[in-house]
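Progress against Task 2.4 (sequence-to-structure conversion) is shown through the following example record, which the project officer requested during the mid-term review.
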Amino acid sequence: MTAPHCEPQTGALRGVQTLSTLPASFKGENFPADIHVAPSGRTLYVSNRGHNSVAVFSLSTKGTLALQQVMSTGGDWPRNFTIDPTGRWLLVANQKSGSVVVYARDMESGRLSATSQRSAVPSPASL
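Structure tokens generated for the chain above:
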């Protein structure tokens, strides 16, 4: 993933840094699917279809990213995810395994923690 910078005068985007959304040990195919910035503006999330995970990045005030966590989605093919309006929960739609899984969000660090909240939903693609 390449973090962009927007030039104020022209509106042009340019790459600032390139980071993987995966652990270095992963060797299979992967297709990032969805990306969201937390309401605080300090955390960026990316879903990984193939690795079946959500990558958690800290986002600096200069726009640079640092990988903080790669969390399994507990299902297959995380197509879409959303952060609830309070910012306390992140919900992931695992399309191929037919589940929506809920993770608790640490409001300061943005890191995710597993919960026991899981719902069976046939082929969820969007939340």
